[in-house]
Design a protein that fits this description.
Elements lengths: L2 E4 L6 H12 L8 E7 L7 E8 L9 E6 L2 E6 L14 H11 L1 H7 L7
Antiparallel strand pairs: 1-5, 2-3, 3-4, 4-5
Helix pairs in contact: 2-3
Length: about 120
């Protein structure tokens, strides 16, 4: 996992609201392939989405996807980690793709977790 973030409505209302919007937004999200959207009506926060942001096109050398679960967001990748770095900085290509594809949502959802410098 390259990065993760959790947002409670009383701690970060903007992030929490955007996460909930993303789980309910019909594909495509960020002009990307959504592989899974789940609604569990019995769960209070029962919305999940998996959005492929890299690796579904010819020439892509790794896969990266964003997994949104109501109030949480995760960035997963198959990129090999760079030695001697920590956090998202271990996956510089994934972070670059996430920032390009997600635009302002990268900062809104992950905060400073995608800062690699």
């Amino acid at each position: 996992m390259a990065a993760s973030q959790f947002a409670l409505p009383h701690e970060n209302a903007v992030r929490h609201a955007r996460l909930r919007e993303l789980t309910r937004q019909p594909p495509p999200v960020w002009n990307c392939h959504t592989t899974s959207t789940v609604h569990q009506p019995w769960a209070a926060e029962g919305f999940h989405s998996v959005i492929v942001i890299h690796g579904d096109q010819p020439g892509h050398t790794f896969q990266a996807y964003v997994y949104v679960i109501s109030a949480s967001v995760y960035l997963f990748t198959t990129e090999r980690p760079v030695a001697g770095r920590e956090g998202a900085a271990r996956f510089p290509l994934t972070v670059q793709v996430a920032r390009q594809v997600m635009g302002a949502d990268a900062q809104r959802l992950f905060g400073n977790k995608l800062d690699v410098e």
